[in-house]
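pasting for the record
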Amino acid sequence: MSETPAAGPGDDKWAPAMRAALAGDEAAYRRLLEEIGRSVRAMARGAFARARVGDADIEDVVQETLLAIHLKRGTWDGGPRLAPWVNAIARHKIIDAMRRRGVRRAEPIEDFEAVLAAPENPDPHMRSDIERVMLKLAPRQRDIVTAISLEGQSIAATATRLSMSEVAVRVALHRALKALAIAWRSATQ
């Protein structure tokens, strides 16, 4: 067995143990997984309590997290911090458990009515500014932008209507939007 490497200046408490485990120290790996298990258990318990779903799946989350860490331990970059990597795995396993249970939080919208901002009235001049800038495009580009971006037509339908390939429509749309951005910036400066 090798000794656990000393922690570096930016290391979290788990990083040296994982480095030792990857170097073959089984005792360090066992201790590390026990510590991670306790941390994930607390994290899952808190998440389930906040979601008000009970704690029936906590141990499943812990075991799935530990298994994922074991299987993917070679993908850890060996950097000074292991905890963010572990926490991300645990967070995804908690979310997966809640999805399996069909957990959905529903809040009555009436509770948020006073908090939500009233919709703003659209600027009546904005439409005319947009139309003026659109006139700077070539007719076919204007037709493509109008069809796809404003009317919601598909690339395929627009390509068929204009007797163009879908790739050509995508390229024309990209170029038209780029030209619109340039025209808009020069018009608003």
